[in-house]
Design brief:
Layout (H helix, E strand, L loop, with lengths): L3 E4 L5 H8 L5 E5 L20 E6 L4 H11 L3 E4 L5 H9 L3 E8 L17 E6 L25 E3 L8 H6 L5 E6 L4 E3 L2 E2 L1 H12 L3
Parallel strand pairs: 1-2, 1-8, 2-3, 3-4, 4-5, 5-6, 6-7, 7-8
Antiparallel strand pairs: 9-10
């Protein structure tokens, strides 16, 4: 199953290095102070082969661009109420943009249509009180209702036992999977063996 794999919530240099060595495509760094995975300072090692994704919540354009320069970000992932125009502004400055949308019912998928042409990817996450990181799944059957042309990553509650369900998703715009809290020893520290097992199961031929 040839899909992008993004591991989010990274923080520690050696953990970053080890996860990158598994061949993942994207690595997420959270710049939202209320998150338990908040990155306060530049890690001693940052990925060189995996794409660096900075996660922001209702942050200013200036703060995002300053952070992008300091951390060498390839993408910005927006998890708040950022408008399509805001995404377009970041794209105009050379940033690749991923817009996260909270999904609780099929109607929520329609919100992605407003971001056509101003985002490189959408990220469908589980509707919750906080801005992502709930560790819970929404009903993935709802994805069949998405009619947009922007490719998306699926997030929210994916764990080692999700492989069969992930394999069953056939949407042509499904670009990849975003994993985080279900693969941790503690917030910001990923469990290598569980990620490795997940990747092996996902890539194994039926």
């Amino acid at each position: 199953m040839n899909k992008l794999i993004k591991v989010c919530g990274m923080r520690q240099a050696e953990n970053i290095r080890a996860v990158e060595a598994l061949g993942i495509d994207m690595m997420g760094f959270i710049f939202y102070p209320k998150s338990p995975r908040f990155v306060q300072e530049l890690p001693a090692y940052m990925p060189t082969s995996a794409q660096r994704v900075g996660v922001f919540v209702n942050e200013t354009e200036q703060a995002i661009m300053a952070c992008a320069e300091r951390y060498g970000l390839n993408y910005v992932q927006l998890h708040g109420q950022e408008s399509p125009d805001f995404c377009k502004t970041l794209q105009a400055q050379g940033m690749k943009v991923m817009k996260a949308l909270s999904i609780g019912r099929s109607k929520d998928l329609d919100n992605g249509l407003a971001y056509e042409g101003v985002c490189d990817y959408l990220l469908f996450d589980t509707l919750c009180e906080q801005h992502g990181g709930s560790g819970k799944q929404f009903d993935w059957e709802l994805l069949n209702q998405y009619r947009g042309s922007t490719p998306f990553l699926l997030s929210g509650g994916i764990d080692a036992g999700s492989v069969r369900a992930l394999r069953a998703i056939r949407h042509e715009q499904l670009a990849g999977f975003d994993i985080n809290s279900r693969f941790e020893q503690q917030p910001g520290l990923k469990d290598m063996e569980s990620i490795k097992a997940f990747l092996n199961d996902l890539q194994r031929k039926k």
